[in-house]
Batch of 2 targets.
Target 1
Amino acid sequence: MQNKIRAYEGLQWRSGQVQTVLDALTIEHPLSIYINQEIFSLTMQTPGDELMLACGMLFTEGVYRTPEIPTFRMVSENRFDHIDQIWFNIPTEQLNREVLTKRTMLSSSSCGICGTTELPIVEGHLDAHHEFTPERVWEAMQSMAQIQNAYLTSGGCHGAAAFDTNGKLLSMGEDIGRHNAVDKTIGSLLFSDQLTSARLLTVSGRVSYEIVYKCFAAGIPHLAAVSAPSSLAVDYCKELGIRLYGFCRENRMTRYA
Protein backbone atom coordinates (compact mmCIF):
# COMPACT_ATOMS: atom_id res chain seq x y z
CA MET A 1 0.00 0.00 0.00
CA GLN A 2 2.79 2.44 0.90
CA ASN A 3 4.10 2.08 -2.63
CA LYS A 4 0.86 3.43 -4.14
CA ILE A 5 0.10 6.21 -1.64
CA ARG A 6 2.03 9.20 -0.30
CA ALA A 7 0.97 11.73 2.35
CA TYR A 8 0.85 15.44 1.41
CA GLU A 9 0.17 18.42 3.64
CA GLY A 10 -2.55 20.90 2.69
CA LEU A 11 -4.92 23.57 3.99
CA GLN A 12 -8.54 22.44 4.21
CA TRP A 13 -11.55 24.77 4.25
CA ARG A 14 -14.68 23.24 5.79
CA SER A 15 -17.74 24.95 7.29
CA GLY A 16 -15.89 28.26 7.55
CA GLN A 17 -12.92 26.70 9.37
CA VAL A 18 -9.38 26.33 8.08
CA GLN A 19 -7.07 23.57 9.25
CA THR A 20 -3.87 21.85 8.21
CA VAL A 21 -4.44 18.30 7.00
CA LEU A 22 -2.26 15.41 5.89
CA ASP A 23 -3.95 13.70 2.95
CA ALA A 24 -3.09 10.36 1.38
CA LEU A 25 -2.74 10.85 -2.39
CA THR A 26 -2.27 8.32 -5.16
CA ILE A 27 1.23 8.36 -6.64
CA GLU A 28 1.69 9.00 -10.36
CA HIS A 29 5.09 7.85 -11.61
CA PRO A 30 6.57 7.46 -15.12
CA LEU A 31 7.37 3.97 -16.38
CA SER A 32 9.45 3.51 -19.54
CA ILE A 33 8.87 0.31 -21.49
CA TYR A 34 11.55 -0.86 -23.92
CA ILE A 35 11.33 -3.61 -26.51
CA ASN A 36 14.59 -4.99 -27.88
CA GLN A 37 16.54 -1.92 -26.78
CA GLU A 38 14.04 0.55 -28.31
CA ILE A 39 11.56 2.71 -26.39
CA PHE A 40 7.94 1.61 -26.82
CA SER A 41 6.08 3.75 -24.32
CA LEU A 42 6.49 6.19 -21.46
CA THR A 43 3.44 5.47 -19.33
CA MET A 44 2.22 7.49 -16.36
CA GLN A 45 1.08 4.98 -13.76
CA THR A 46 0.80 4.10 -10.09
CA PRO A 47 3.73 2.08 -8.68
CA GLY A 48 3.09 -1.57 -7.98
CA ASP A 49 2.49 -4.45 -10.41
CA GLU A 50 4.53 -2.68 -13.10
CA LEU A 51 5.37 -5.97 -14.81
CA MET A 52 1.68 -6.96 -14.91
CA LEU A 53 0.89 -3.55 -16.40
CA ALA A 54 3.55 -3.80 -19.09
CA CYS A 55 2.70 -7.39 -20.07
CA GLY A 56 -1.01 -6.63 -20.11
CA MET A 57 -0.42 -3.56 -22.26
CA LEU A 58 1.79 -5.36 -24.79
CA PHE A 59 -0.70 -8.24 -25.01
CA THR A 60 -3.90 -6.21 -25.33
CA GLU A 61 -2.36 -3.81 -27.84
CA GLY A 62 -1.26 -6.74 -29.99
CA VAL A 63 2.48 -6.11 -29.79
CA TYR A 64 2.84 -9.82 -29.11
CA ARG A 65 -0.05 -12.30 -28.90
CA THR A 66 1.39 -15.35 -27.20
CA PRO A 67 0.46 -16.04 -23.55
CA GLU A 68 4.09 -16.69 -22.62
CA ILE A 69 5.77 -13.88 -20.66
CA PRO A 70 8.79 -12.44 -22.56
CA THR A 71 12.17 -12.25 -20.87
CA PHE A 72 12.68 -8.95 -19.10
CA ARG A 73 14.64 -6.91 -16.60
CA MET A 74 13.40 -4.09 -14.38
CA VAL A 75 15.34 -0.98 -13.40
CA SER A 76 14.85 1.34 -10.43
CA GLU A 77 16.81 4.60 -10.29
CA ASN A 78 14.92 6.68 -7.71
CA ARG A 79 14.99 7.06 -3.95
CA PHE A 80 11.49 5.60 -3.53
CA ASP A 81 12.47 2.29 -5.19
CA HIS A 82 9.71 2.68 -7.77
CA ILE A 83 10.32 0.78 -11.00
CA ASP A 84 11.40 3.28 -13.68
CA GLN A 85 12.07 1.00 -16.65
CA ILE A 86 11.20 -2.46 -17.93
CA TRP A 87 13.33 -3.90 -20.77
CA PHE A 88 11.78 -6.74 -22.78
CA ASN A 89 13.54 -9.07 -25.17
CA ILE A 90 11.02 -10.47 -27.63
CA PRO A 91 11.94 -12.60 -30.68
CA THR A 92 11.38 -10.60 -33.84
CA GLU A 93 9.04 -13.22 -35.30
CA GLN A 94 6.67 -12.76 -32.31
CA LEU A 95 6.43 -8.98 -32.72
CA ASN A 96 3.72 -7.09 -34.55
CA ARG A 97 5.87 -4.45 -36.21
CA GLU A 98 2.81 -2.66 -37.58
CA VAL A 99 1.59 -1.92 -34.06
CA LEU A 100 5.01 -0.70 -32.97
CA THR A 101 5.24 1.80 -35.82
CA LYS A 102 1.82 3.30 -35.02
CA ARG A 103 2.69 4.37 -31.46
CA THR A 104 4.68 7.37 -30.37
CA MET A 105 6.22 7.38 -26.92
CA LEU A 106 3.88 9.10 -24.43
CA SER A 107 0.82 7.51 -22.83
CA SER A 108 -0.86 9.43 -20.01
CA SER A 109 -2.55 7.91 -16.98
CA SER A 110 -5.94 9.08 -18.26
CA CYS A 111 -5.69 7.77 -21.82
CA GLY A 112 -4.51 4.37 -22.96
CA ILE A 113 -4.58 5.13 -26.69
CA CYS A 114 -2.81 8.49 -26.34
CA GLY A 115 0.45 8.04 -28.17
CA THR A 116 -1.06 5.96 -30.97
CA THR A 117 -1.23 7.62 -34.36
CA GLU A 118 -4.52 5.94 -35.31
CA LEU A 119 -7.19 3.69 -33.79
CA PRO A 120 -6.38 0.01 -34.28
CA ILE A 121 -8.64 -1.98 -36.59
CA VAL A 122 -10.66 -4.46 -34.53
CA GLU A 123 -12.28 -7.47 -36.16
CA GLY A 124 -14.00 -10.49 -34.67
CA HIS A 125 -16.89 -11.42 -32.41
CA LEU A 126 -16.97 -12.89 -28.92
CA ASP A 127 -19.48 -15.57 -27.99
CA ALA A 128 -20.61 -15.19 -24.38
CA HIS A 129 -21.97 -18.76 -23.91
CA HIS A 130 -23.12 -17.57 -20.48
CA GLU A 131 -25.32 -14.83 -19.11
CA PHE A 132 -24.68 -13.07 -15.82
CA THR A 133 -27.70 -12.17 -13.72
CA PRO A 134 -27.92 -8.59 -12.42
CA GLU A 135 -27.35 -9.98 -8.92
CA ARG A 136 -24.11 -11.67 -9.99
CA VAL A 137 -22.87 -8.48 -11.65
CA TRP A 138 -23.63 -6.42 -8.53
CA GLU A 139 -21.84 -9.02 -6.39
CA ALA A 140 -18.78 -8.76 -8.64
CA MET A 141 -18.79 -4.97 -8.44
CA GLN A 142 -19.02 -5.13 -4.65
CA SER A 143 -16.20 -7.68 -4.48
CA MET A 144 -13.96 -5.34 -6.47
CA ALA A 145 -14.89 -2.33 -4.34
CA GLN A 146 -14.08 -4.13 -1.09
CA ILE A 147 -10.47 -4.81 -2.12
CA GLN A 148 -9.70 -1.43 -3.70
CA ASN A 149 -7.34 -0.61 -0.86
CA ALA A 150 -5.59 2.29 -2.59
CA TYR A 151 -8.94 3.89 -3.47
CA LEU A 152 -10.30 3.40 0.04
CA THR A 153 -7.22 5.18 1.42
CA SER A 154 -6.79 7.99 -1.12
CA GLY A 155 -10.04 8.24 -3.11
CA GLY A 156 -7.91 8.73 -6.23
CA CYS A 157 -7.26 5.28 -7.67
CA HIS A 158 -9.18 3.23 -10.25
CA GLY A 159 -9.77 -0.49 -10.00
CA ALA A 160 -10.46 -3.37 -12.38
CA ALA A 161 -11.13 -7.03 -11.68
CA ALA A 162 -11.75 -10.25 -13.59
CA PHE A 163 -14.19 -13.02 -12.64
CA ASP A 164 -15.06 -16.47 -13.95
CA THR A 165 -18.56 -17.71 -14.80
CA ASN A 166 -19.25 -18.51 -11.15
CA GLY A 167 -18.32 -15.04 -9.99
CA LYS A 168 -14.97 -16.14 -8.54
CA LEU A 169 -12.39 -13.36 -8.41
CA LEU A 170 -9.42 -14.23 -10.62
CA SER A 171 -7.35 -11.05 -10.60
CA MET A 172 -7.51 -7.39 -9.65
CA GLY A 173 -5.49 -4.26 -10.41
CA GLU A 174 -5.41 -0.68 -9.12
CA ASP A 175 -3.92 2.36 -10.78
CA ILE A 176 -4.44 6.08 -11.20
CA GLY A 177 -5.29 5.31 -14.84
CA ARG A 178 -8.44 3.38 -15.78
CA HIS A 179 -6.75 1.58 -18.65
CA ASN A 180 -3.68 0.82 -16.54
CA ALA A 181 -5.85 -0.92 -13.95
CA VAL A 182 -7.28 -3.06 -16.76
CA ASP A 183 -3.81 -3.87 -18.11
CA LYS A 184 -2.64 -4.90 -14.62
CA THR A 185 -5.67 -7.16 -14.26
CA ILE A 186 -5.11 -8.80 -17.65
CA GLY A 187 -1.37 -9.07 -17.04
CA SER A 188 -2.10 -10.88 -13.79
CA LEU A 189 -4.36 -13.30 -15.67
CA LEU A 190 -1.48 -14.01 -18.07
CA PHE A 191 0.92 -14.69 -15.20
CA SER A 192 -1.52 -17.03 -13.46
CA ASP A 193 -2.54 -18.75 -16.72
CA GLN A 194 -6.21 -17.89 -16.12
CA LEU A 195 -6.93 -15.68 -19.11
CA THR A 196 -9.28 -18.17 -20.75
CA SER A 197 -11.26 -18.52 -17.50
CA ALA A 198 -12.07 -14.80 -17.28
CA ARG A 199 -15.65 -14.07 -18.42
CA LEU A 200 -16.46 -10.79 -16.68
CA LEU A 201 -14.34 -7.65 -16.38
CA THR A 202 -15.42 -4.95 -13.91
CA VAL A 203 -14.07 -1.40 -13.85
CA SER A 204 -14.51 1.36 -11.30
CA GLY A 205 -14.93 4.29 -13.70
CA ARG A 206 -16.48 5.01 -17.05
CA VAL A 207 -16.03 2.84 -20.15
CA SER A 208 -14.35 4.30 -23.21
CA TYR A 209 -13.24 2.72 -26.46
CA GLU A 210 -9.81 1.81 -25.05
CA ILE A 211 -11.32 -0.29 -22.24
CA VAL A 212 -13.55 -2.15 -24.71
CA TYR A 213 -10.58 -2.79 -26.98
CA LYS A 214 -8.53 -4.31 -24.14
CA CYS A 215 -11.49 -6.40 -22.96
CA PHE A 216 -11.95 -7.78 -26.48
CA ALA A 217 -8.24 -8.46 -26.93
CA ALA A 218 -8.30 -10.51 -23.73
CA GLY A 219 -11.33 -12.47 -24.96
CA ILE A 220 -13.56 -11.42 -22.05
CA PRO A 221 -17.20 -11.22 -23.25
CA HIS A 222 -18.80 -9.30 -20.35
CA LEU A 223 -17.83 -5.78 -19.24
CA ALA A 224 -19.41 -3.94 -16.28
CA ALA A 225 -18.71 -0.41 -15.06
CA VAL A 226 -19.66 1.75 -12.11
CA SER A 227 -20.17 4.74 -14.39
CA ALA A 228 -21.29 5.51 -17.94
CA PRO A 229 -20.01 4.17 -21.26
CA SER A 230 -19.16 6.42 -24.18
CA SER A 231 -21.06 6.21 -27.45
CA LEU A 232 -18.07 4.65 -29.20
CA ALA A 233 -17.76 2.06 -26.43
CA VAL A 234 -21.37 0.97 -26.97
CA ASP A 235 -20.94 0.87 -30.75
CA TYR A 236 -17.86 -1.32 -30.51
CA CYS A 237 -19.41 -3.64 -27.92
CA LYS A 238 -22.36 -4.23 -30.24
CA GLU A 239 -19.99 -4.94 -33.11
CA LEU A 240 -17.68 -7.22 -31.13
CA GLY A 241 -20.28 -9.19 -29.15
CA ILE A 242 -19.39 -7.83 -25.70
CA ARG A 243 -22.19 -7.54 -23.13
CA LEU A 244 -21.78 -4.02 -21.73
CA TYR A 245 -23.30 -3.00 -18.38
CA GLY A 246 -23.14 0.61 -17.16
CA PHE A 247 -24.11 2.45 -13.96
CA CYS A 248 -23.71 -0.75 -11.90
CA ARG A 249 -24.34 0.72 -8.47
CA GLU A 250 -27.04 1.13 -5.85
CA ASN A 251 -28.86 -2.00 -7.05
CA ARG A 252 -29.32 -0.74 -10.57
CA MET A 253 -27.59 -1.15 -13.91
CA THR A 254 -28.20 -0.69 -17.62
CA ARG A 255 -27.17 -3.14 -20.35
CA TYR A 256 -26.29 -1.30 -23.55
CA ALA A 257 -25.04 -4.12 -25.77
Note: Residues 178-191 form the longest helix (14 residues).
Target 2
Amino acid sequence: MEIPQVEAFLAVGTFGGFRRAAAALRLTQPAVSARIRALEDSLSVRLFERGPHGLALSAAGRTLRPHAEQLLQAVALARQAVHDLRPTSGGAIQIAAVLSICTYLLPDVLKRFQTAHPNVMITVRSGHSKEVLEMVLRGEAEIGLARSLQHPEVETVSLRDDPLILVGRPKSWPTSARRARLAEVADRPLIFFDRGSSDWTLTQGLFRRAGLVPNVTLEVETIETAKRMVERGMGLAFLPHLAVGRELRRRSLVAIEIVDAEPISRSLDVIHPRPRPLSSAARALLHALRSALTEAGGPPRRRR
Protein backbone atom coordinates (compact mmCIF):
# COMPACT_ATOMS: atom_id res chain seq x y z
CA MET A 1 0.00 0.00 0.00
CA GLU A 2 1.54 3.29 -1.12
CA ILE A 3 0.66 6.83 -0.08
CA PRO A 4 -0.29 8.00 -3.63
CA GLN A 5 -2.66 5.02 -3.88
CA VAL A 6 -4.33 5.97 -0.60
CA GLU A 7 -4.64 9.59 -1.75
CA ALA A 8 -6.29 8.45 -4.97
CA PHE A 9 -8.65 6.15 -3.07
CA LEU A 10 -9.84 8.96 -0.78
CA ALA A 11 -10.18 11.38 -3.68
CA VAL A 12 -12.36 9.00 -5.69
CA GLY A 13 -14.45 8.24 -2.59
CA THR A 14 -14.88 11.95 -1.84
CA PHE A 15 -15.71 13.12 -5.37
CA GLY A 16 -17.66 10.04 -6.42
CA GLY A 17 -15.79 9.45 -9.67
CA PHE A 18 -12.40 9.15 -11.34
CA ARG A 19 -12.65 12.27 -13.52
CA ARG A 20 -13.25 14.72 -10.65
CA ALA A 21 -10.72 12.94 -8.45
CA ALA A 22 -8.12 13.24 -11.21
CA ALA A 23 -8.81 16.97 -11.53
CA ALA A 24 -8.47 17.46 -7.77
CA LEU A 25 -5.18 15.53 -7.67
CA ARG A 26 -3.93 17.17 -10.88
CA LEU A 27 -3.42 13.79 -12.49
CA THR A 28 -4.77 12.11 -15.60
CA GLN A 29 -7.79 9.86 -15.20
CA PRO A 30 -5.82 6.75 -16.29
CA ALA A 31 -3.21 7.51 -13.62
CA VAL A 32 -5.87 7.59 -10.93
CA SER A 33 -7.45 4.40 -12.25
CA ALA A 34 -4.05 2.68 -12.21
CA ARG A 35 -3.47 3.64 -8.58
CA ILE A 36 -6.88 2.33 -7.55
CA ARG A 37 -6.29 -0.97 -9.39
CA ALA A 38 -2.89 -1.36 -7.74
CA LEU A 39 -4.39 -0.72 -4.30
CA GLU A 40 -7.23 -3.19 -4.92
CA ASP A 41 -4.75 -5.80 -6.15
CA SER A 42 -2.59 -5.37 -3.04
CA LEU A 43 -5.64 -5.87 -0.80
CA SER A 44 -7.34 -8.51 -3.00
CA VAL A 45 -10.69 -6.68 -2.74
CA ARG A 46 -12.83 -4.31 -4.75
CA LEU A 47 -12.98 -0.88 -3.15
CA PHE A 48 -15.69 0.62 -5.38
CA GLU A 49 -18.86 -0.65 -6.97
CA ARG A 50 -21.35 0.70 -9.46
CA GLY A 51 -24.74 1.50 -7.99
CA PRO A 52 -27.96 3.11 -9.19
CA HIS A 53 -26.52 6.55 -8.40
CA GLY A 54 -23.05 5.99 -9.81
CA LEU A 55 -19.76 4.95 -8.26
CA ALA A 56 -19.82 4.19 -4.52
CA LEU A 57 -17.58 2.63 -1.91
CA SER A 58 -17.91 -1.11 -1.46
CA ALA A 59 -18.11 -2.66 2.00
CA ALA A 60 -14.32 -3.08 1.92
CA GLY A 61 -13.94 0.54 0.81
CA ARG A 62 -16.10 1.79 3.68
CA THR A 63 -13.99 -0.23 6.10
CA LEU A 64 -10.74 1.10 4.67
CA ARG A 65 -11.74 4.76 4.53
CA PRO A 66 -11.26 5.80 8.21
CA HIS A 67 -7.90 4.02 8.32
CA ALA A 68 -6.83 5.72 5.09
CA GLU A 69 -7.78 9.12 6.54
CA GLN A 70 -5.76 8.41 9.69
CA LEU A 71 -2.81 7.26 7.59
CA LEU A 72 -2.71 10.48 5.55
CA GLN A 73 -3.11 12.55 8.69
CA ALA A 74 -0.14 10.76 10.25
CA VAL A 75 1.91 11.38 7.11
CA ALA A 76 1.01 15.08 7.17
CA LEU A 77 1.99 15.36 10.85
CA ALA A 78 5.28 13.58 10.17
CA ARG A 79 6.10 15.91 7.31
CA GLN A 80 5.20 18.92 9.44
CA ALA A 81 7.37 17.69 12.33
CA VAL A 82 10.37 17.44 10.00
CA HIS A 83 9.54 20.82 8.47
CA ASP A 84 9.47 22.41 11.93
CA LEU A 85 13.12 21.44 12.46
CA ARG A 86 14.25 23.67 9.62
CA PRO A 87 15.85 26.94 10.74
CA THR A 88 13.52 28.98 8.50
CA SER A 89 10.40 27.40 9.94
CA GLY A 90 8.42 29.31 12.54
CA GLY A 91 6.63 26.20 13.76
CA ALA A 92 3.04 25.14 13.32
CA ILE A 93 -0.29 25.62 15.08
CA GLN A 94 -3.21 23.23 14.85
CA ILE A 95 -6.51 24.99 15.62
CA ALA A 96 -9.94 23.48 16.17
CA ALA A 97 -12.83 25.95 16.09
CA VAL A 98 -16.60 26.02 15.92
CA LEU A 99 -17.93 27.11 12.54
CA SER A 100 -19.12 30.55 13.68
CA ILE A 101 -15.62 31.45 14.90
CA CYS A 102 -14.06 30.05 11.70
CA THR A 103 -16.40 32.19 9.63
CA TYR A 104 -16.62 35.48 11.52
CA LEU A 105 -13.45 35.81 13.59
CA LEU A 106 -10.54 33.76 12.27
CA PRO A 107 -10.12 35.30 8.78
CA ASP A 108 -9.18 38.75 10.15
CA VAL A 109 -7.19 37.30 13.04
CA LEU A 110 -5.15 34.93 10.88
CA LYS A 111 -4.44 37.62 8.32
CA ARG A 112 -3.03 39.81 11.11
CA PHE A 113 -1.14 36.88 12.63
CA GLN A 114 0.47 35.69 9.39
CA THR A 115 1.65 39.21 8.58
CA ALA A 116 3.62 39.18 11.84
CA HIS A 117 4.58 35.45 11.71
CA PRO A 118 4.90 34.49 8.03
CA ASN A 119 6.82 31.27 8.71
CA VAL A 120 4.20 29.68 10.98
CA MET A 121 2.11 26.96 9.34
CA ILE A 122 -1.54 27.05 10.48
CA THR A 123 -4.06 24.22 10.23
CA VAL A 124 -7.72 24.91 11.02
CA ARG A 125 -10.37 22.24 11.53
CA SER A 126 -14.00 23.01 12.34
CA GLY A 127 -16.74 21.20 14.22
CA HIS A 128 -19.34 21.55 16.92
CA SER A 129 -18.20 22.40 20.45
CA LYS A 130 -18.00 18.73 21.47
CA GLU A 131 -15.89 17.92 18.41
CA VAL A 132 -13.57 20.87 19.14
CA LEU A 133 -13.10 19.60 22.70
CA GLU A 134 -12.37 16.06 21.49
CA MET A 135 -9.76 17.28 18.99
CA VAL A 136 -7.97 19.19 21.74
CA LEU A 137 -8.12 16.26 24.17
CA ARG A 138 -6.78 13.85 21.52
CA GLY A 139 -3.89 16.18 20.75
CA GLU A 140 -5.08 16.85 17.20
CA ALA A 141 -5.27 20.60 17.95
CA GLU A 142 -3.07 22.69 20.22
CA ILE A 143 -5.86 25.14 20.94
CA GLY A 144 -9.62 25.08 20.54
CA LEU A 145 -11.92 28.03 19.93
CA ALA A 146 -15.50 27.59 21.05
CA ARG A 147 -18.31 29.24 22.96
CA SER A 148 -18.85 28.54 26.67
CA LEU A 149 -16.81 25.33 26.74
CA GLN A 150 -15.60 23.91 30.07
CA HIS A 151 -13.92 20.58 30.85
CA PRO A 152 -11.72 19.46 33.78
CA GLU A 153 -8.84 18.45 31.49
CA VAL A 154 -8.57 21.77 29.65
CA GLU A 155 -7.69 25.32 30.61
CA THR A 156 -10.37 27.79 29.50
CA VAL A 157 -9.53 31.41 28.72
CA SER A 158 -12.58 33.60 28.14
CA LEU A 159 -12.06 36.36 25.61
CA ARG A 160 -15.40 38.16 25.78
CA ASP A 161 -19.15 37.62 25.90
CA ASP A 162 -21.00 36.74 22.72
CA PRO A 163 -24.74 37.14 23.36
CA LEU A 164 -27.48 35.82 21.13
CA ILE A 165 -29.38 38.92 20.10
CA LEU A 166 -32.66 39.29 18.27
CA VAL A 167 -32.09 40.98 14.92
CA GLY A 168 -34.26 42.09 12.04
CA ARG A 169 -34.29 44.44 9.10
CA PRO A 170 -34.84 48.12 10.01
CA LYS A 171 -38.16 48.04 8.13
CA SER A 172 -39.34 45.02 10.09
CA TRP A 173 -39.25 46.98 13.36
CA PRO A 174 -39.46 50.68 12.43
CA THR A 175 -39.95 52.15 15.90
CA SER A 176 -37.07 54.19 17.27
CA ALA A 177 -36.99 52.36 20.62
CA ARG A 178 -36.88 48.85 19.15
CA ARG A 179 -37.99 47.18 22.36
CA ALA A 180 -40.54 44.39 22.65
CA ARG A 181 -42.04 41.85 24.99
CA LEU A 182 -41.24 38.18 24.38
CA ALA A 183 -44.90 37.34 23.64
CA GLU A 184 -44.86 39.93 20.85
CA VAL A 185 -41.68 38.40 19.42
CA ALA A 186 -43.15 34.88 19.60
CA ASP A 187 -45.95 35.92 17.21
CA ARG A 188 -43.52 37.28 14.59
CA PRO A 189 -42.02 35.04 11.87
CA LEU A 190 -38.84 33.58 13.37
CA ILE A 191 -35.83 31.87 11.79
CA PHE A 192 -33.98 29.23 13.79
CA PHE A 193 -30.66 27.63 12.85
CA ASP A 194 -28.72 24.41 13.50
CA ARG A 195 -31.43 22.29 15.15
CA GLY A 196 -30.15 20.50 18.24
CA SER A 197 -27.16 22.80 18.74
CA SER A 198 -26.63 24.69 21.99
CA ASP A 199 -27.72 27.96 20.34
CA TRP A 200 -30.92 26.34 19.10
CA THR A 201 -31.57 24.85 22.55
CA LEU A 202 -30.96 28.16 24.34
CA THR A 203 -33.33 30.03 22.04
CA GLN A 204 -36.05 27.41 22.35
CA GLY A 205 -35.61 27.47 26.14
CA LEU A 206 -36.20 31.22 26.24
CA PHE A 207 -39.74 30.74 24.93
CA ARG A 208 -40.40 27.49 26.77
CA ARG A 209 -39.66 29.04 30.18
CA ALA A 210 -42.18 31.77 29.40
CA GLY A 211 -44.84 29.26 28.33
CA LEU A 212 -44.72 30.50 24.73
CA VAL A 213 -44.57 28.67 21.40
CA PRO A 214 -42.44 30.58 18.89
CA ASN A 215 -43.72 31.10 15.36
CA VAL A 216 -40.82 29.36 13.60
CA THR A 217 -41.33 29.84 9.87
CA LEU A 218 -37.85 28.74 8.77
CA GLU A 219 -35.20 26.37 10.10
CA VAL A 220 -31.81 26.45 8.38
CA GLU A 221 -28.45 24.78 8.96
CA THR A 222 -26.06 27.69 9.49
CA ILE A 223 -25.86 31.10 11.11
CA GLU A 224 -24.89 32.69 7.80
CA THR A 225 -27.98 31.30 6.05
CA ALA A 226 -30.22 32.57 8.85
CA LYS A 227 -28.62 36.02 8.63
CA ARG A 228 -29.18 36.18 4.87
CA MET A 229 -32.84 35.26 5.36
CA VAL A 230 -33.25 38.05 7.92
CA GLU A 231 -31.62 40.54 5.57
CA ARG A 232 -34.23 39.63 2.96
CA GLY A 233 -37.07 40.34 5.36
CA MET A 234 -38.16 36.74 5.85
CA GLY A 235 -38.26 36.94 9.63
CA LEU A 236 -36.37 37.71 12.83
CA ALA A 237 -33.59 35.56 14.32
CA PHE A 238 -31.56 35.21 17.49
CA LEU A 239 -27.97 35.33 16.21
CA PRO A 240 -24.55 35.59 17.92
CA HIS A 241 -23.26 39.15 18.17
CA LEU A 242 -20.01 37.93 16.57
CA ALA A 243 -21.94 37.08 13.39
CA VAL A 244 -23.88 40.35 13.04
CA GLY A 245 -21.62 43.04 14.52
CA ARG A 246 -20.70 44.40 11.10
CA GLU A 247 -24.32 44.53 9.92
CA LEU A 248 -25.40 46.29 13.11
CA ARG A 249 -22.72 48.93 12.63
CA ARG A 250 -23.80 49.45 9.03
CA ARG A 251 -27.47 49.47 10.12
CA SER A 252 -28.43 46.87 7.55
CA LEU A 253 -29.73 44.95 10.58
CA VAL A 254 -31.04 46.26 13.90
CA ALA A 255 -31.06 44.72 17.36
CA ILE A 256 -34.39 44.40 19.19
CA GLU A 257 -34.25 44.43 23.00
CA ILE A 258 -36.56 42.01 24.81
CA VAL A 259 -37.70 43.80 27.95
CA ASP A 260 -39.18 40.89 29.92
CA ALA A 261 -36.61 38.09 29.46
CA GLU A 262 -33.07 37.42 30.61
CA PRO A 263 -30.44 37.94 27.90
CA ILE A 264 -28.98 34.80 26.33
CA SER A 265 -25.22 35.13 26.57
CA ARG A 266 -22.26 32.86 26.02
CA SER A 267 -18.53 33.50 26.03
CA LEU A 268 -15.90 33.21 23.33
CA ASP A 269 -13.35 30.80 24.79
CA VAL A 270 -9.90 29.48 24.02
CA ILE A 271 -9.14 26.02 25.41
CA HIS A 272 -5.92 24.02 25.65
CA PRO A 273 -4.85 20.93 27.65
CA ARG A 274 -3.90 21.75 31.25
CA PRO A 275 -0.63 19.78 31.45
CA ARG A 276 0.69 21.05 28.13
CA PRO A 277 2.02 24.64 27.94
CA LEU A 278 1.19 26.68 24.87
CA SER A 279 3.90 27.11 22.25
CA SER A 280 5.22 30.59 21.58
CA ALA A 281 3.31 30.64 18.28
CA ALA A 282 0.05 29.73 20.02
CA ARG A 283 0.61 32.44 22.63
CA ALA A 284 1.15 34.95 19.83
CA LEU A 285 -2.08 33.80 18.19
CA LEU A 286 -3.94 34.23 21.47
CA HIS A 287 -2.62 37.81 21.66
CA ALA A 288 -3.83 38.44 18.10
CA LEU A 289 -7.28 37.11 19.03
CA ARG A 290 -7.54 39.46 22.01
CA SER A 291 -6.36 42.43 19.97
CA ALA A 292 -8.85 41.76 17.17
CA LEU A 293 -11.77 41.43 19.58
CA THR A 294 -10.77 44.60 21.42
CA GLU A 295 -10.62 46.59 18.19
CA ALA A 296 -13.90 45.11 16.95
CA GLY A 297 -15.71 46.27 20.07
CA GLY A 298 -18.85 44.55 21.25
CA PRO A 299 -20.08 43.34 24.62
CA PRO A 300 -17.54 43.32 27.48
CA ARG A 301 -16.25 40.04 28.86
CA ARG A 302 -18.03 38.73 31.95
CA ARG A 303 -16.06 37.85 35.06
CA ARG A 304 -15.96 34.07 35.57
Note: Residues 195 and 201 are 8 Å apart (CA to CA).
